[in-house]
Amino acid sequence: MTEPTTTRPTTTGPTTTGPITGEQHALIAGPYQAVVTEAGAALRELTHEGRPLVLAHGAGENAPAASGQLLAPWPNRLDRGRYAYGGATHRLDVSDPDHDCAIHGLVRWAPWRAVLREPDRVRLRHRLLGTAGYPFRLDLDVEYALSEERGLTVRLTASNRGDVTAPYGHGAHPYLTVGVPIDACTVTFLADRYLPVGPRKLPSGPPLDVTGTDRDLRTGPLLGDRLIDNTFTGLARDGDGRSTVTLAGAGRAVALWSDEAHPWTQIYTAEEAAEPRAGLAVEPMTCPPNAFVSGEDVIELAPGAAFTGTWGIHAVAP
Length: 318
Fold this sequence. Notes:
Layout: E1 24-29, E2 32-37, E3 43-48, E4 51-52, E5 69-71, E6 77-79, E7 82-85, E8 88-91, E9 101-103, E10 113-118, E11 121-128, E12 138-147, E13 151-160, E14 166-168, E15 171-173, E16 175-176, E17 186-189, E18 191-194, E19 208-209, E20 229-235, E21 243-249, E22 252-258, E23 264-268, E24 280-285, H1 291-294, E25 299-301, E26 306-316
Antiparallel strand pairs: 1-2, 2-3, 3-4, 5-15, 6-9, 7-8, 10-11, 11-12, 12-13, 13-26, 14-25, 16-24, 17-21, 18-19, 18-20, 20-23, 21-22, 22-26, 23-24
Organism: Actinomadura litoris
GO molecular function, one term: isomerase activity
Region (Disordered): 1-22
């Protein structure tokens, strides 16, 4: 006689459901509120008195056009994803096929683990292990902190946990907004030079003087129909070593500042974003586009060494 067959359930452990961007870290300090996601440790929302300072996206939506993401271990584009370092040639995945480039690093979709949580700040960590195109090992730690007086401060630290020196750079990709299309806004940015770019949005020559061009934002002109997707340098700094970009319109203003670890800033008027020209991308960067190829301002991160850069966003009187 054949014994009856019994089907046993497979135990897979507890399951949870939630938004595709993972855990949502909500912060509050006075009039400021922010949300940071587990996915990419991205800044998903930032408001002041309930009004947005950056373009937001839903918890169930992948960050559109790199909105709010951290860019490491390089920002911006890398020509064909190929570079030479440490006596070897490396090839990264071409993540921007329209321009045949690798773009914005390796961690903007990765999960970041919270290692500190308080009502007004969160610290997240991601361990970046070696890949075929980036055979180096880094620990990345980012802290988002809100202050009633100073708004948002973001501090990103890279530590080399490998046994060889690693090339490194980072950036961030928030889109500033005052709630109206940027064409109706003024932009003030004390930057003397910008990088010209070719059709693949890679630098086509050395930095140029902004004087007499529509890239000259030093006097706070109306943005109007200017089309900008360029990296700026020659940044004026205040007594604290900060460079600042201010977007103003509709009786409001928002400013993004970055410290001296960021000698470059990308300005992008977002023609190709899901909501064209709804916000202004202001991207503090430690190095220019294609830096792993050119070598310009690439950080040589020795084993055991660390590098930190800090930037922030706050509301200002218009």
